[in-house]
Amino acid sequence: MKKLSFIATISILALVSVPVAALHAAELKVLAGGSMTTVLNELAPQFERISGHKLVIHFDSTPNLIKLATGAPFDLGVVPIDVFKDAAAKARFVLPTIDIAHVGYGVAVRAGAPKPDVSTPDALKKTLLGAQSIANLPTSAAGAYVTGVFERLGIAEAMKTKTKPQATTGQIAEAVAKGDAELGVFLVNVLMAPGVEIAGPFPAELQQELVFTAAVAADTKEAAAAKAFIDYLTSPAATAVIRKMGLNPG
Known about the structure:
This protein is α/β, with parallel strands linked by helices. It contains eleven helices and eleven strands. The longest helix has 22 residues.
């Protein structure tokens, strides 16, 4: 009898917990790296459905995320780790951070176009110099790294006239798909889009992965809900989506 009573009690508590959770549903303001747009746009509705919380996500480049982090209130960030190189921005978060995903750089061409060789530094250099135009987002952390690679290859000046800066990460692949740019040079996951194909990743000597890390805002009033979202991003369901979108979890 005691066992049955215990089970009955647990069942009642489970039923009661649903409306209680709903009563405490939070609206979370999230700062996120632009290159996480497709991932978070797919994961956000799933989290909202199972948690009852609502997410309002602002996607942006690293310099703008730093400005936002040191300005208006927010609840958590899922941002490039470069954001934390800024002392003022770093102070707005509860540390340590939790790494959510990491991804390397590559080159994309319009779907159906011949794929150039980018397997070695010399091959990548030749491909870049031979391209008529290149789509990139120079103002982002990822774009800054790409510019650094141009410098290491000794072609920075030549790339200035070939580069077609885009306003958002999503426009990089779109420019290539439309034929407005011959190559897209950016994070691999951003280049995985309709109308384009990956020619290849950067060669190992020039490759570096950008890490997207998460942390709760120091002054949020919704710390528990913010942490719940970060926990969700490390769950098996979320990591499966992260992999599908071309990034590596953690």
